[in-house]
């Protein structure tokens, strides 16, 4: 059996060189690993042009851990966080803040509609107690792209701080920290960076992080202390996932070799265009308007004009070497197919051939 192709939002298909980078042991306090960590932090910062203003703080764990750490470290009990929600990941940020006992306000839009910057500006004008705003860049629930530049402008104009969950966009969709005012960008290794799962990281405005000593109620999820640790001796405070770090550094070298985020975005766009056109041809209706669709993951409605069971569809595609993803919507029956990872148009074309083969079988099952 060859490895399956993962058409998911992550963990996803990685290149052989990325997996190969994990085939050795590293001493976590050895100068070679300290150098690797320094390269990791520098490369991540460079992806978003944050060298002059931000610092990179990697953290063990999945993406949710870094979001929780950033909220815990940057939002004080006396602050108030406004969460902009149009999907499950926005809801998760609000849940994190509530669990941490931080005051939270929520502004919601339907899952198929982008966050509306004018409404954000109005909410900030109406409530001077709000100190921070949280936005999900690409809402992976649907694959919708929220208008980062416009929201960041509205938040900065009101003098508030923006926390950006860029988990499923970082590395492909440009975030230029020289031009877009964001206090903290959170992302993880295993999405558009095409690394393996096990670390998240935040790019945090140096001044905001320097002021955040003692704010986090959690020891392990304290980004200020995690940063101080790196600044002191270049080492991780607690056991780092050394192989995951090695794989991510290799993946970042490959990102550079591919031509950086613009080249990666172009490949993902081609994947998405091929996928949408092919699925439409096969009678599957995309859930989102193309105008708000990011080239990250596409959501399709479960067909209603014929019997269709997602479980049977999934199994039949898996048997042909393709792993797709269930839906996560509250209001419509859907499933998802990712466009990211070490896959290109030819992989999507092979997937479409498999879908054509199995769609009838899934209907009958
Ligand atoms: C993947 C993802 C996360 C983090 O999820 P984990 O399962 O903890 O890695 C957070 N936000 C968004 C938008 C994501 O796509």
UniProtKB/TrEMBL annotation:
Q: Which Gene3D superfamilies match?
A: Aspartate Aminotransferase, domain 1 (3.90.1150.10), Type I PLP-dependent aspartate aminotransferase-like (Major domain) (3.40.640.10)
Q: Which residues carry this modification: N6-(pyridoxal phosphate)lysine?
A: 191
According to its UniProt record, the EC number is: 2.6.1.37
GO terms (molecular function) for this protein are:
2-aminoethylphosphonate-pyruvate transaminase activity
Keywords for this entry? Aminotransferase, Pyridoxal phosphate, Pyruvate, Transferase
Q: Which residues cross the membrane?
A: none
Report the SUPFAM superfamilies cross-referenced here.
PLP-dependent transferases
Which coenzymes or cofactors are required?
pyridoxal 5'-phosphate
Superkingdom, according to UniProt? Bacteria
Q: What class of enzyme is it?
A: transferase
* Domain named Aminotransferase class V: residues: 59-301
Q: Which reaction does it catalyse?
A: (2-aminoethyl)phosphonate + pyruvate = phosphonoacetaldehyde + L-alanine
Q: Which PANTHER family match?
A: 2-AMINOETHYLPHOSPHONATE--PYRUVATE TRANSAMINASE
Instruction: Write down the NCBIfam families for this protein, in alphabetical order.
Output: PhnW-AepZ, PRK13479.1, transamin_PhnW
Q: Which family does it belong to?
A: Belongs to the class-V pyridoxal-phosphate-dependent aminotransferase family. PhnW subfamily.
Q: Which HAMAP family match?
A: PhnW_aminotrans_5
Subunit details: Homodimer.
What the protein does comes down to: Involved in phosphonate degradation.
User: What name does this protein carry?
Assistant: 2-aminoethylphosphonate--pyruvate transaminase
Q: Which species? A: Caldovatus aquaticus
